[in-house]
Design a protein that fits this description.
Radius of gyration: 24 Å
Order of helices and strands: HHHHHHHHHHHHHHHHHHHHHHHHHH
Number of strands: 0
Number of helices: 26
Structural class: mainly alpha
Strand content: under 5%
């Protein structure tokens, strides 16, 4: 009988709490949206699966060795770790875990060694997170792959669209102010680092959002990543009403002239000039923009086809798997089910709306001064959801005028948005670093 009781006490069902059950349902919902609805499946499938894995009670897949030891519940395990961290053994698991997180690096290392000696190890997803996101490697490699798949031709053929990509980044800074406002009014307590990390959702760039969150607010990374990729998948639903609201029927019918042919030399030189100019002014943007430009240079130089093909396909696919599972590890119930998550989701949708509106309004403003009119619909593509935002612009253009093909024109601000979000990320990291 004792053996049956021990088996029952060691089972996941015995340890399952309502929060873990809810988050497992959230994981299943993400998988449903990815598989059945086609919403960003490359990311939402591994994120959803990682969410389920991280909420399996008793498995500790997303926990460190110390956390696994503490959540074991054995007094002879908790006592020595609590003593090492300067806490009482009866202080509670949450208090001891908080002491571990705020302890000096040397004390954390000693606690990990003690937990290892007691027979506990880091969870699988915890290790994935440290290697892929904690080190910052995965978002940077994804940016390199995106660069290798990007054609700067439409942007170089119509440089004015760079302003549309820049204008759409206003959603980032507006969201930061919104997060600060929520904190000031006492509704939700966001630090300035939290606000900066949340704001990047407005750039509609998943890897950038993950990179900034991993540096400024790692505890919010799961909610920020889910919000960023979910809203990117919902671009065809979020953007059209805003685009119609701020444009007239006549403006949506504006036809744009065919783009000029961009030479190979221009395409090779542009990423080099872009990187050098931006990095000299804003070094904190160099990692993201550097990998993006490097990937693009491999694509355009024509002498490293194998490397370019690897960056565009095999490498980015492998990294995406581990990135998604690592983000899923941050969807554990204890970390995700928090009022801050709701605030992040609300601020994220507001950021997308503001970015879309600013891109459209900037295009309308530019039409006051240019001879060749810009269709304001392409301004919405300034959010860097590549290439989905450009496709939405093209779709609405064709609805207004069946001969109005805007896809290549919209790719200009779309690519500019990727550059803009990387620069905005550098600005956020630089400002927050100077304040702390």
């Amino acid at each position: 009988m004792q053996n049956f009781l021990r088996l029952w006490h060691d089972s996941g069902i015995y340890h399952l709490d309502i929060g873990q059950a809810v988050m497992m349902l959230v994981g299943l919902l993400l998988l449903f949206l990815a598989i059945r609805k086609g919403f960003e499946p490359l990311l939402l499938v591994p994120i959803g699966f990682g969410c389920i894995l991280s909420n399996i009670p008793g498995a500790g897949l997303s926990m460190s060795a110390v956390e696994n030891a503490l959540y074991s519940g054995y007094p002879d395990v908790i006592g020595p770790i609590a003593q090492l961290l300067g806490e009482q053994a009866d202080a509670g698991v949450k208090a001891i875990s908080a002491a571990y997180k705020h302890a000096a690096a040397g004390v954390q290392a000693d606690a990990n060694r003690l937990a290892s000696d007691l027979g506990y190890a880091n969870g699988m997803l915890y290790n994935f997170y440290n290697v892929a996101i904690g080190s910052g490697v995965a978002p940077l490699l994804i940016f390199m792959g995106v660069g290798a798949m990007t054609d700067f031709g439409p942007l170089l053929a119509n440089p004015k669209t760079l302003f549309l990509g820049a204008a759409a980044q206003f959603g980032i800074f507006a969201t930061v102010m919104g997060a600060v406002g929520l904190s000031v009014t006492g509704i939700i307590d966001f630090s300035i680092a939290d606000a900066a990390a949340i704001g990047i959702i407005g750039g509609a760039d998943g890897p950038t959002a993950i990179y900034v969150a991993s540096i400024l607010a790692p505890e919010l990374l799961g909610a920020i990543a889910v919000a960023a990729y979910s809203y990117m998948a919902l671009v065809p639903m979020i953007q059209p009403p805003i685009m119609r609201l701020f444009t007239t029927e006549e403006e949506r019918k504006i036809q744009m002239h065919q783009l000029r042919t961009v030479s190979r030399r221009e395409k090779i030189v542009f990423p080099l000039i872009l990187l050098i100019l931006v990095a000299l002014i804003l070094p904190s943007a160099a990692p993201l923009l550097g990998m993006f430009c490097f990937g693009n240079l491999m694509r355009e130089c024509g002498v490293v086809e194998r490397l370019s093909d690897t960056a565009q396909n095999a490498l980015i696919n492998i990294v995406t798997i581990f990135l998604g599972l690592s983000v899923g590890s941050k969807l554990a119930a204890a970390k995700f089910l928090d009022p801050k998550t709701l605030g992040i989701l609300v601020l994220g949708i507001v950021a997308f709306g503001i970015g879309t509106a600013m891109g459209v309004l900037t295009a309308k403003f530019m039409n006051l001064f240019v001879k060749q009119k810009i269709n304001p619909l392409i301004g919405s593509a300034g959010v860097s959801a590549v290439p989905m935002a450009a496709r939405v612009s093209n779709k609405l253009g064709l609805e207004a005028n069946p001969q109005n093909y805007l896809l290549m024109h919209a790719m200009g601000p779309n690519v500019a948005g990727v550059i803009g979000s990387a620069i905005a990320a550098g600005v956020m990291i630089s400002i927050v670093s100077s304040l702390t």
